[in-house]
Design a protein that fits this description.
InterPro entries: Ankyrin_rpt-contain_sf. Helix content is about 60%, strand content about 0%. The protein is mostly helical. Among the domains are: about 120-200, Serine Threonine Protein Phosphatase 5, Tetratricopeptide repeat (Alpha Horseshoe), CATH 1.25.40; about 560-615, no CATH class.
């Protein structure tokens, strides 16, 4: 299989954003990691959009076992780990990580093969408990391991009623186990847990009891009702019914609490938002102020039917509701809200379409707002101090958000870390720079030449001129660059040019060269780094315009191109080869080609591989 460093580079960047730590290999089955990365259709499409390589060729490359094996080796560093994951023949040396990988990815026979080499600990039960793997779990139990509270918790998540049933007589319920059981919504397990609740006379909190309503599990709802464990008048129960997205569930709760919507009491409480945001979260009916909580829960349910039902009951729509629909990427609901919302939206809403706000498909969401004339790409009025303060609040809320939902990880801004290309700006942590990037990007996406003309031709400081230039090169196509980049006649940042090289975006590189935007010395520096890519098309560009630099073994090895490594070696003395190879042995080992190392460095002792790769 011929190595394609363009696909390789872009995929590795994406992989590192989706799998944030190698610890994940020892916590979840590789099948889930593979589904999220190598087999992910969205990943294939994104690489296609960036590099213009066909989706078919990208898919074939990323799902090839040879590529997957080598990629795993570059992450895990040891063949024995990769072999367990890839169902290959095992070695005879095992460690604890081998056992964890085997329990996650292989059958019980492999686990039995590894067990004699490992010191057993009760914590090992957690993996098969969470996997719901009864064979491995009870095999370990028979070896003398005993479950503890942590194992109990994992078993609740693992959906094996048999494992949970075996633990219940041994360990009492805890708050964490109760909450996890009700969240996980396994009916068979919950029925056993409820029996224990009744037996131990445990007082249930509304927050825990609300999960079966949220999950639409009427079997459990009826069981809880049988033991009088549900407070039907609780706001938590009402909001959970709305959040379930099931009108059947909501009708049932309404039948138990007929006054649930009287005087819109669900919207009477302020949940301690900043006074600056009151306009966004409040609406008025009959002269009374209300806070739009109920509509927010309906939106978060993801059900357009629920949103329509709540709206038809008379509940109001506010700007905060529209932000919720944007953050949840709910286009149909967003369109409904916009059609029933009067007035314009505040300019601060643009922050949710910026490069540090990770929402999948957010540019399409922005287009919906713009086409419905609810926002302007350029503000139509001069900002007041209150406007700036409100803007800052939204930027802070976005930046302080610690959780990125799995679907939002597919946002290209997250996967490709676009924010790093603008980290040179002096005020990057302020909303002005971020919003300028967003305005330029939206104008490019919508081909709004009038807006681009205004943004580019008004007087801008040097910082903003560089921001605009980089945004045009990153988010625009070649036609956009030909049309607008000449006005400032600036080169994009070196970091961004290197990214364009890695995407094989040759047209943009040719424009930069033809306009003489970079000195030759800078091109030569870029060529030195581009040796890691070693892409023939990119190399032709540098050679054609005499922009090449001296080859560096470190980068040639990182390219993974064995023919180029051998070509470099043939031009050097044996002494120089040995000296350079010693310095770069770790990168050579990561190529996963022992024969290559034997050919060029016969003295190497392969017994030291593990120690070298740990460095």
């Amino acid at each position: 299989m011929e190595r394609d460093n363009i696909i390789h580079f872009v995929f590795d960047k994406i992989f590192n954003q989706l799998i944030l730590s190698n610890d994940e290999f020892y916590q979840i089955p590789f099948s889930k990691i593979r589904e999220k990365t190598f087999d992910n259709i969205y990943v294939h499409k994104l690489i296609h959009q960036l590099t213009n390589k066909s989706e078919k060729s990208i898919k074939l490359y990323l799902t090839n076992n040879y590529f997957i094996t080598n990629h795993l080796y570059s992450k895990l560093k040891l063949h024995k780990y990769v072999k367990i994951i890839m169902n290959d023949i095992l070695e005879n040396t095992f460690d604890l990580n081998c056992l964890k990988l085997a329990m996650l990815n292989r059958d019980i026979e492999i686990v039995q093969q590894i067990i004699p080499f490992i010191k057993l600990d009760n914590e090992l039960l957690m993996i098969p408990a969470e996997m719901g793997n009864e064979k491995i779990y009870f095999y370990l139990i028979n070896l003398g391991l005993n479950p503890n509270i942590s194992v109990y918790h994992k078993a609740i998540l693992g959906n094996s009623a048999e494992i949970v049933k075996s633990i219940i007589p041994l360990i009492s319920l805890s708050k964490v186990i109760l909450e996890s059981a009700f969240q996980n919504n396994n009916t068979e397990i919950l029925l056993m847990i409820i029996d224990e609740i009744v037996k131990e006379n445990i007082k249930m909190k509304n927050e825990i009891v609300s999960y079966p309503i949220l999950n639409g599990n009427m079997i459990i709802v009826k069981k809880l009702e049988e033991f009088n464990l549900i407070d039907w008048l609780s706001e938590t129960i009402c909001f959970s019914a709305i959040l379930s997205g099931s009108l059947t569930i909501l009708y049932y709760v309404e039948s138990k609490n007929p006054n649930i919507h009287n005087n819109f009491y669900l919207d009477k409480t302020n949940h301690k938002k900043s006074p600056l945001l009151f306009d966004e979260i409040t609406y008025f009916l009959n002269g009374n102020k209300y806070y739009a909580h109920t509509m927010n829960y309906a939106i978060q349910s993801g059900s357009i039917e629920m949103v329509r039902y709540i709206y038809n009951l008379g509940y109001g729509i506010t700007e905060s509701n529209i932000i919720t629909a944007i953050k949840s990427n709910l286009k149909e609901i967003l369109i409904f809200l916009l059609h029933n919302y009067t007035g314009k939206l505040h300019d601060s809403i643009l922050n949710y379409f910026g490069i540090t706000s990770f929402i999948n498909d957010k540019i399409e969401l922005a287009k919906i707002l713009i086409m419905n004339e609810k926002i302007n790409i350029i503000p139509t009025h001069k900002f007041t101090l209150s406007d700036y303060q409100r803007d800052r609040l939204h930027v802070n809320m976005i930046n302080e958000s610690k959780t990125i939902f799995e679907n939002d990880m597919m946002d290209p801004d997250y996967l490709m870390k676009y924010h790093i290309f603008f980290s040179y700006t002096k005020r990057f942590d302020l909303d002005l720079d971020l919003k300028l990037i967003t305005r330029i990007r939206l104008a490019l996406e919508l081909n709004k030449d009038d807006i681009l003309n205004k943004l580019i031709t008004i007087e801008q400081n040097d910082n903003n001129r560089q921001i605009i230039t980089d945004a045009i090169f990153l988010f625009g196509n070649l036609n956009h660059i030909l049309k607008w980049a000449y006005i400032y006649n600036l080169a994009p940042s070196n970091l961004l040019i290197m990214e364009l090289i890695c995407y094989q975006q040759l047209g943009k590189l040719c424009y930069i060269y033809s306009r003489n935007l970079l000195p030759i010395s800078k091109w030569k520096e870029l060529h030195k780094l581009s040796q890691m890519i070693a892409d023939p098309t990119i190399e032709d560009f540098f050679y054609k315009y005499n922009l090449t630099s001296k080859q560096k073994l470190k980068y040639i090895i990182q390219s993974g191109k064995k023919d180029l490594i051998m070509k470099w070696i043939r031009t050097k003395s044996k002494e120089e080869v040995n000296e350079k190879i010693k310095k770069n042995i770790k990168n050579l080992l990561l190529l996963n080609d022992s024969q290559l190392i034997k050919d060029i460095y016969p003295e190497f002792n392969f017994d030291n591989i593990e120690e070298i790769l740990k460095i």
